[in-house]
Amino acid sequence: MKLGFHLNDFDWAGGAAQLGSTLAQIARAGDEAGFDRIGVADHFWRSHYMGSVEGPELECYTTLGFLAASTQRAKLTAMVTAATYRQPGLLAKIVTTLDVLSGGRAWLGIGAGDYEAEARGLGLPFPPLKERFERLEETLHICLQMWDGEHGDDRPYQGQHYHLERTLNAPQSLTRPHPPILLGGSGEKTLRLVARYADACNIRPGPDIPQKLETLRRFCDEERRDYDAIEKTAPFAFDVGENGETVGELLGRLRWLAGMGIQTVIGFVPRVDRITPLEILGREVIPAVADW
């Protein structure tokens, strides 16, 4: 099992004036601890699940670029981008740039989106669910077309919702054939798209994980896709306590996830700005789960 950590709350000591220096410390500590990847929530408002939406939230791709400069090995991904928030050609260019400047460490994390209040509040597109999934699939088509070949397969793209005259992409991504694609969501529509296009799924933790993965396997059979080639990931919380007193409990929960087929866990770390939790995870948890 591999572990990544997820940044979805920036309400840290020192406020906005210290966010940059604190984030750099967190990134370096996580990289040194051996985390496989760092995920950043692609939101503009703090999630209502974190409390007040007025809390601090950093823009995802600016933050990922900052993290690229602050780390050496960890992979970098949005967790996850709402497909309607950015035009597909722009999104492909953003992820390509992140991949090039990070030395080939970028992932495309994407989904249909579910934060309507945020989108409405900032005037971002948020069509009905059916259209959001249509736009998600067209976005995947466009990204894969732009990542095809030396400078992208630069023929026009004509979809139902998007029309691009030339899908040129230079410089091309360092990761070939393209930056890996993670699709967030556990519903059947998302899992079918995983089987068609993605390198990883991201399924919420719960006793229904085996059922979800069996659905994914069925879709892979229908799409003639190798089920084992898709990385099975899940979000979680890595709470080790103030001084590591709950490491044992956390290991038990991670073993539970591994037993259901989860290969990579991307977890929120409470009190991450104190750095100590990352150090404890690197010392006591990452080595313990490596052979699962």
Descriptors:
292 residues, alpha/beta, TIM Barrel, 9-stranded parallel sheet, two-stranded antiparallel sheet, 9 helices, 11 strands
Biggest beta sheet attributes: 9 strands, parallel
CATH architecture label name of the domain at 1-79 and 203-214 and 224-292: Alpha-Beta Barrel
User: Strand order of the main beta sheet, please?
Assistant: 3-2-1-11-10-9-8-5-4
Number of strands: 11
Alpha carbon gyration radius: 19 Å
List unreliable stretches of 5+ residues. Answer: none
Could you tell me the CATH topology label of the domain at 1-79 and 203-214 and 224-292.
TIM Barrel
CATH class type of the domain at 1-79 and 203-214 and 224-292: Alpha Beta
Brief sketch in words of this structure:
The protein is α/β, with parallel strands linked by helices and 292 residues long. It has helices at 16-33, 60-70, 88-101, 116-122, 129-146, 188-197, 209-223, 247-259, 276-289, and strands at 2-7, 37-40, 75-78, 81-82, 108-111, 157-158, 163-164, 181-184, 200-202, 231-237, 264-268.
